[in-house]
Inverse folding.
């Protein structure tokens, strides 16, 4: 999965970019679920 690779990269490079992207994707996914209801 893309997120798994991102987490591995963030662990190696210790940057928070992937964490931000994962958080953003979670927010957008929850927003889509709310809009669908």
């Amino acid at each position: 999965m893309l997120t798994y690779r991102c987490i591995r990269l963030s662990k190696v490079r210790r940057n928070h970019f992937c964490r931000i992207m994962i958080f953003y994707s979670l927010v957008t996914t929850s927003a889509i679920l709310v809009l669908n209801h």
Q: What stands out?
A: Helices lie at 2-13, 17-36.
